[in-house]
Sequence to fold (273 residues):
Amino acid sequence: MTLERAPFAVDTPAKRLLFHTVRIETELVGRGSGTGTAFVVEHVHARGRTRFVVTNRHLVDDVVRGALVFPLARDGQPLLGSRFEVRIDEFGEAWHRHPDAAVDLAVLPLQPLLEAAAAQGAQLYVQPVGTDRLAGAAQLAQLDALEEVWFVGYPSGVWDQVNALPILRRGTTATPPAVDFEGRPEFLVDAAVYPGSSGSPVFIRAADGGGLWLAGVIAAVFFREESLRLTPQPVPASTALEAVGAEMIDLGLVVKAKAVHELLHDYLRHWQS
Fold:
């Protein structure tokens, strides 16, 4: 926890983007430390309203120790420069993975983290994305093949350390969002995706101009290998480029938001039945 500063008014859509995310800091098995991105969603279901932290499953696999970093709150607003680390024992085991092992997503309920912080006198600031703003097939069908996208996270571990803020980035779709890239519930973005961008939420403006939709989650980046073959690989959590003889190109792979819905429903079916 750092010294508190004046509250920061979160009163525009762009400012809200800054607080959807949570920074992940991990110690990896045999690979040093790493950083990544998660974000908070709020889901209304038959038993009430539950908030979750969502990220990539490859960010939580093979982790020795991990923590989620939140800003502190005062009077319902975030305190710039404040941060609180929630350390999670058995970090990897705490996450619920998507039932399809090929879908690179995992989820964690938020409430136990809020309670653990409150027990230490800390009020965390969270700005969840409502699952009613997750783009489904109907919303994606209204979009053109080329659309501007916004995403937020911690590329190469970079963030505003003084103010404890993530980095906002933008790019364009590289494949039509309504079409499943190579038959999977994914699409590509033409954007600078780097280690630490894993788990970043990707937003697209609604076709009717009515705000932003969460279109998906960054999960992989394309590498150009020495043989000039292009391969998609999970965005590494470590800030070191792990693929020897390869370089990243500005194509990121995004898991569509409908997979987040599937993951939440699977969690609720398993743990609230």
